[in-house]
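User: Fold this; tokens only.

Assistant: Input:
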Amino acid sequence: MLVVDDDPSFRTLVRTLLERAGMRVVEAVDGDEALAALEPTAPHLVLLDVMLPRTSGYEVFRELRDRCGETLPIIFISGERVDAHDRIAGLLLGADDYIVKPFDPDELIARVRRPLGRRTNGGTHAQPVTDELIADLTARERAVLAMLAAGVGSKQIARQLVISPRTLGTHIQHILGKLGVHNRTEAVAVAHRAGLVVASDVEAHSRERMADSASEFAP
């Protein structure tokens, strides 16, 4: 396990938690140390801070992927880039997960073990975002997920599908369960990776939202 973060107190905390869970931990302060730690043996998983000195976590992520391939589980973690669009960007880049600081210790262990378990069972980091997962959704659930991925708000989704907000919430809970994700942000990343929504759809819905907002303030 490789933990890449420039905060020594955070690295100590994570090392303590992971070692108590029976995992061996190697620490790195920045991208250079992270890449140097790949020799002679690549880690089983990388916990990578988004905000690193000199080189961003995103750049380190790409270098890790180039050197180790797509099967290396990488989890972004951040205490600064915590907005939904930051998490979506990290997941769409190809990360296995995106954890926001502060976090619950048990949650960290659970979210680290998930990709490790898939790797042990012969899977890859892309396993949870296959067409098979999307195929498990009903037609209505696929429609809801596609609209969420396109940036449509909950009220507009309920209005367009002629369902109540409560029914929409039930659909979303079913979607999260079938996709094996924790929240809407991760579900949206699955939808984009699986090609359930295209960029033109997102742009179209963005224009619609702007038009709706303009009409609300029109004299």
